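[step 3/7] fold_predict: job queued, chain A
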Amino acid sequence: MSVEVVPPRANPALVGQEQAERTLLAAWNSGRLPHAWLLAGPRGVGKATLAYRFARFVLAQRPDGEAVGGTGLFGAEPAPARPLGMALGSDHPVFRRVAAGGHADLMVLEPGMIHPETKKESAEIVVDHVRAAISFLGMTPAEGGWRVLVVDHAEEMNASSENALLKILEEPHARSLLLLVSHAPGRLLPTIRSRCRRLDMPALEPGIVATLLSRSAPGLEAGQGAALSVLAAGSVGRAIDLLEAGAIEIYEALLDVVAARDGAGLAMHALAERVGMFGPEGQASFRAFREVALHLAGACARCAAGAPVVAALPREAQALPVLAASGTGRWLAAWDEMRRLAAATEGLNLDRRQAAFATLASLREAAGQGRG
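[step 4/7] structure written:
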């Protein structure tokens, strides 16, 4: 299915994070805007979209307290009223330049930038990039307003990069703004976190995820959108990844394996082969498999404990009471084991097929079906 994803720098819409936007706007209107912000929360909930939205807004303003229009025949014009919103239309000059990556007063650091020495894309944010950003922030704004630095996936800075960034956090320049975006803020140095105003952004409501997903994939059936919104746990970015990886079909096959009363060895091997292929496609399928397996284990644990559960599929809703009968402890143990196995598979580049088969065996054992 064709999925159209608007990159955060070109996305004019922010849905479901109105409170976070109000917090930034209130700080701006107070006249005491913190020079550094840490936008934290789950992946795919709009953190980068909000960062670029705020960056565009700030770049479109004049310096705080400066008279607009300067002096003329009638003296200085009165300062503008405090803005009530941050949205800029997609036809606004600042919006267009930010979307095209051509605004002189905006710099972005993110993984995938060209390493200055190897001349290849770097998986982390290296110190040379941070040093260039420090120099950028120290320059006079080209358009007389502000200079803004966005660090997306800030947790991907290496140790040297983080230590270099501390310099600008400790000695910020006037009319400079740093926006750090991270879905793993615990990986950042405590000294970096302590020097930023933290803004936590929660997971989106399932209905919002389904609505946003339908915009990116117009041909998606309503039932599929609802299922993906539950499996994605409030992240539209994750929902898109799951859609592209065929997560619903993978989850249906997983439910067949876990719920099978008789030996399921052949089905286990078939599913493990499907999600354990080599290459980028296999990696996406394995990650989708990992997500739905953890979802099932968590849903079964909550069901066994008597907690409310939102099922992604009608088949799941029917199977949960039966699978959860084995008890909360078994499912919590399976959930914990799967998380460790997934981390080891990614970190040590283990065979994904073997990891998938072991995950299925763990799920079947938790359900009281045996390991094969």
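[step 5/7] annotate
Residues 64-77 have pLDDT under 50 and may be disordered.
The chain has two domains: 8-200, 245-366.
exit 0
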